[in-house]
Amino acid sequence: MGAAGTEPAIALHVLAMPYPGRGHVNPMMNLCKLISVRKPDILFTFVVTEEWHGFIGSDTRKPANICFATIPNCIPSELGRAKDFPGFLKAVATKMEAPFEQLLDRLELPVDVIIADTYLDWVVLVGNRRNIPVASLWTMSATVFSVFHHFELLKQNGHFPVEIS
User: Fold this and answer.
1) What is the pLDDT of residues 95-123, one digit of tens each?
2) What would be an example GO MF term here (predicted)?
């Protein structure tokens, strides 16, 4: 803590950018919560779409050093994305980058580091353009990572594609 009852000074500003889908937002928030409890001098800005903020914005269990920032709903709704999943993926890959950069320009404190979901490869490009380091968070299990990492071996050894007939 700072002087008698004041908040600690901010030593680092971390921007967290999860992929806007179930199974991605919660792990990113959990990481931010785990770090923030141990390091209260780190400010986390957790970026979500306006729709996702409506889903999680009332979360009062988050530490005080985590704040939300939103970008516009520039992608199809989470509630109907299954109707056109390829369209949803394309929108995430092509329509979120510009509003994300505009948000970076509006933030009061400069961002020291970005933690981004591995699926959001465009965040690395933004970080590179702005000289902001980017860490990638893989939100799935180590088993899924291993399957993806060794996919060529599965094909080479005839384990993929799978014959179901």
Assistant:
1) 999 999 999 999 999 999 999 999 999 99
2) quercetin 7-O-glucosyltransferase activity
Residue 126, token pair as written in the block: 């933004």
pLDDT greater at residue 60 or residue 33: 33
Q: Quote the distance between the C-alpha of residue 106 and its chain's center.
A: 19
| Closest C-alpha among 117, 131, 112 to residue 20 | 117
Contact residues for 74 (Cβ-Cβ < 8 A; gap 6+)? 49, 91, 95, 96, 99
Tokens representing 78 are 């989470």
State pTM to two decimals.
0.84
Return d(Cα 36, Cα 66) in angstroms, integer.
Answer: 7
Show the tokens assigned to 164. Answer: 């179901």
Residues 23/24/25/29 CA torsion (nearest 10 deg): 100
